[in-house]
Write a structure and sequence with these properties.
Number of domains: 2
Largest sheet: 7 strands, mixed
Number of helices: 13
Helix content: 40-55%
Pfam families: Aminotran_1_2 (PF00155)
Protein name: 8-amino-7-oxononanoate synthase
Number of strands: 12
CATH superfamily of the largest domain: Type I PLP-dependent aspartate aminotransferase-like (Major domain)
GO biological process, one term: biotin biosynthetic process
Oligomer: single chain
Radius of gyration: 22 Å
Strand order of the largest sheet: 2-8-7-6-5-3-4
Keywords: Pyridoxal phosphate, Transferase
Distance between the termini: 47 Å
Order of helices and strands: HEHHEHEHEHEHEEEHHHHEHEEEH
Shape: globular
Organism: Mesorhizobium temperatum
Strand content: 15-25%
């Protein structure tokens, strides 16, 4: 082997460090303004009690195999049945993570000869799935329905005859803005297209009982939705909901589902309990929306920020080094706010990602804004 075997990896890491893009792991510290535990369920007594009761009655920690072998536990099937009913779908499938679920959908469902159109700001897992899949794929400008239709029109003019698939997030994880859902559904109907909707950040927070932003279109045979269990639901894994035919197809043709060890049955218990809590404890959503509104007013009045209207509030800084410095200063003051840099976000849009959860109250939010104003004045 020529040269030091680790040299090119060291060089890459050094290059990232020079650009202030080197990632490192750090322990949790400070008030939570960075997690996706929007409803504060992750450490809730009710979720913990449900898991403890499952352990007491003999539910195993591990699934022991893939779902098609011995890994198909009663807890998985109970969660999927409840999720299908809750989200108004024919069927639900439980995956180990949202990332794997998105990757699985985009590699398994769009076929060779089909056209997949992906919002340019969709999650990295969707981009990876699109690149690894069999369908031709195009990127469309963010939330631009006309750009999506133009891509379909061009494809048809060039002889494309396959099915069209349109993939996007309903609530975007870095900007906190919503997709134009009604317009995309109408567009899909005009072109007999399928929609793949990542509801990761809307599940539990938006829609009736937290059913998400696609809830108004439940039961359609051209919509597949992904609901992560590791954000507002406080557990882990992800639920794919949609027409029974497509879910059955995934069981038979989706390699990330077929060949992966099933998620822990205990996590299925936790996710199922969290779905019940969405219906039983609506005040959690009310309180979260109140805190979102309060934070929006504070940031608008004191920092000139345009509120996103959601629990995800970006604070744009632009310069990578200043973003890192501001985030570090806030963390030193006891506020866990992270700086988000390229390639996670586009060049020139480095930002603080301020996440609002029930793990903080209005006094905490006011204190955070005080610290932000002070840090910005000196950074």
């Amino acid at each position: 082997m020529n040269g030091a075997p680790l040299a090119r990896y060291e060089a890459t890491l050094q290059g990232l460090a020079r650009k202030d893009r080197l990632r490192t792991l750090a322990p949790r510290a400070g008030l939570d303004f960075s997690s996706n535990d929007y409803l504060g369920l992750a450490a809730s007594r009710r979720l913990g009690d449900a898991v403890a009761a499952a352990i007491a009655r003999g539910t195993p920690v591990g699934a022991t195999g893939s779902r098609l072998l011995r890994g198909n536990a009663p807890e998985h099937e109970a969660l999927e049945a409840d999720a299908a009913a809750f989200f108004g779908a024919d069927r639900a499938l439980y995956f180990g993570s949202g990332y794997i679920a998105n990757f699985a959908l985009l590699t398994a469902l769009p076929q060779k000869g089909d056209l997949l159109i992906l919002d340019q700001l969709a999650h990295a897992s969707m981009h990876e799935g699109a690149q690894a899949g069999r369908a031709e794929f195009k990127l469309a400008a963010h939330n631009d329905v006309d750009a999506v239709e133009d891509a379909i029109t061009r494809s048809r003019a060039e002889g494309g005859i396959g099915r069209v698939w349109i993939a996007f997030e309903s609530l975007y994880s870095m900007d906190g803005d919503r997709a134009p859902m009604e317009n995309l559904v109408a567009l899909a109907d005009r072109h007999e297209a399928f929609l793949i909707v990542d509801e990761a950040h809307a599940t539990g927070v938006c829609g009736p009982d937290g059913r998400g932003l696609a809830a108004a279109f439940k039961g359609r045979d051209n919509i597949v939705a992904l609901h992560t269990c590791g954000k507002a639901l406080g557990a882990s894994g992800a639920l794919v909901t949609g027409p029974r035919t497509l879910c059955d197809y995934l069981v038979n043709r989706c390699r990330p589902f077929i060949y992966a060890t099933a998620p822990s049955p205990l996590m299925a218990v936790a996710a199922r309990e969290a779905l019940a809590m969405l219906s039983d404890e609506p005040m959690r959503r009310v309180q979260l929306h109140e805190r979102v509104a309060f934070a929006g007013r504070q940031l608008a009045e004191r920092c000139g920020v345009v509120p996103s209207g959601s629990q995800i509030q970006p604070f744009f800084i632009g310069d990578v080094r200043r973003t890192v410095a501001v985030a570090a200063a806030l963390q030193a003051r006891g506020f866990d706010i992270r700086g988000i840099r390229p390639p996670t976000v586009p060049e020139g849009t480095s930002r603080l990602r301020i996440s609002l959860t029930l793990n903080v109250d209005e006094a905490d939010i006011s204190a955070m804004v005080d610290a932000l104003v002070e840090v910005l004045a000196s950074a």
